[in-house]
Design goal:
It is built from 10 helices and 8 strands. It has about 300 residues and is an alpha/beta fold. The protein folds into 2 domains: about 140 residues, no CATH class; about 160 residues, Reverse transcriptase/Diguanylate cyclase domain (Alpha-Beta Plaits, 2-Layer Sandwich). It has a 6-stranded mixed sheet. A two-stranded antiparallel ribbon has the order 1-2. The longest helix is centred in the middle third of the chain and has 44 residues.
Length: about 300
C-alpha cells in the first residue's frame, strides 16, 4: 500500500509547497496579532477542518493508483485544504487595510480555492461513483448486498463467513431464497501443502477461488470458512439444479491447469462438494451444518454428496 503513496510524491510536494508559501507570505507581510487577540475557537475549528482535509487527501493518495479520478480528488481536496489553511493563518496574522495583500489573499485564496475545490471534488466523486459501479460488478459474487472490508479474506480474496451469516440472516424468512448451500474443498489438500509448501498451497487456494468465481452465476455468493473450505450460497435454486451446478464446478476444477511456480508441471485437483438442503425447521446454522455433513460424506465417498 505504501508504494501507492510513492506514486504521488509530486502531488504531495506541490500541496506542501503551496501551504509553506502561504505560511511564509502571511508571516512576512502580516502582523502577528498576539496571544490575547487570537480567537482560539476559530483556530481549533478552522485548523481541525484543514487537518481533516489533509488526512483525507493522504488517505486517497495512499489507497489509489494514479489516474484521472485520483487527480480530480487530489485537486479538490488540495484546494479545499489550502483555503482552510489560509483561514487558519488569518487567525494569527493581521493585515493593514491599505495592503493589497489583504484583498489578494483573503479574496483569492479563500473565496476562489474553496469553491474550486468543491467543484473538482464533486466532479471527481461523480467519476468515482461510475468507477465503483464497475468494481461492484466485479465483486458481486464476493459480497452480494453487503460490503465490509473486515469480512474480506486476505489470502483467497473472497469474503469470510461473516458475509454468509449476514446474507442468510437478512432474508431467511423467504424459504425459497436459500434452499441449498454448498460446502466445497480440494481433495487431499493437506498432502499438496505438505509436498509443495505453504507458498504454493496459498497460490493454489487463491487461484482456485478465482476460478470458482468465474464458474458461478451472478446471484451466487462464495465465502471462505477454513483453510481450503468454501461455502457457496445459491439463492432461489432447487436441489436438482444445485446438483447439476456442483457437477459443473467439479468438472471445471478438474480441468483447471495449475502449474507449479517455475516449472511446466501441472498438478490436477479434485473438488469435493457437499450439498445441504434446507428443512422447514432449519435456521441458517443448521443449513450450513447439513452442507458440512454432506461434504464429509463426499470426501469418504465419490466426491459429491447431498444431505436433505
Amino acid at each position: 500500500m505504501n508504494s501507492l503513496l510513492r506514486l504521488h510524491t509530486r502531488k504531495l510536494f506541490l500541496v506542501g509547497s503551496m501551504a509553506m508559501l502561504l505560511t511564509g507570505l502571511s508571516a512576512g507581510l502580516g502582523d502577528y496579532k498576539g496571544f490575547a487577540a487570537i480567537d482560539w475557537v476559530d483556530v481549533v475549528g478552522e485548523g481541525s477542518t484543514a487537518l481533516a482535509l489533509l488526512v483525507w487527501l493522504l488517505m486517497v493518495l495512499r489507497s489509489r493508483p494514479a489516474g484521472r479520478v485520483t487527480n480530480l480528488l487530489m485537486l479538490g481536496l488540495g484546494f479545499m485544504f489550502l483555503a482552510m489553511w489560509q483561514d487558519t493563518l488569518d487567525e494569527f496574522f493581521a493585515f493593514a487595510s491599505t495592503q493589497a495583500w489583504e484583498a489578494t489573499v483573503e479574496g483569492s485564496v479563500e473565496s476562489v480555492l474553496m469553491p474550486m475545490g468543491l467543484g473538482l471534488l464533486t466532479y471527481g466523486l461523480w467519476h468515482w461513483h461510475k468507477e465503483q459501479l464497475s468494481i461492484r460488478a466485479q465483486l458481486l459474487k464476493r459480497e452480494q448486498v453487503f460490503r465490509d472490508h473486515l469480512w474480506l479474506d486476505g489470502l483467497s480474496q473472497v469474503a469470510r463467513y461473516e458475509q454468509i451469516e449476514a446474507t442468510l440472516n437478512s432474508d431467511w424468512e423467504d424459504e425459497h431464497a436459500h434452499q441449498v448451500a454448498l460446502v466445497v474443498e480440494l481433495h487431499d489438500f493437506h498432502l499438496f501443502e505438505r509436498r509443495y509448501g505453504y507458498s504454493e498451497a496459498d497460490r493454489l487456494l487463491r487461484e482456485t477461488g478465482e476460478y470458482l468465481i468465474l464458474n458461478l452465476r451472478e446471484k451466487d455468493l462464495i465465502c471462505r470458512v477454513a483453510r481450503d473450505r468454501l461455502i457457496i450460497l445459491m439463492p432461489y435454486t432447487r436441489p436438482s439444479q444445485a446438483r447439476e451446478l456442483a457437477v459443473n464446478l467439479r468438472s471445471a476444477v478438474a480441468h483447471f491447469c495449475f502449474h507449479l511456480s517455475g516449472t511446466d508441471q501441472r498438478v490436477e485437483q479434485v473438488l469435493d462438494v457437499g450439498i445441504g438442503v434446507r428443512q422447514p425447521t432449519d435456521d441458517p446454522q443448521a443449513l450450513v451444518k447439513r452442507a458440512t455433513d454432506a461434504l464429509q460424506s463426499a470426501v469418504a465417498g465419490n466426491g459429491m454428496s447431498l444431505v436433505s
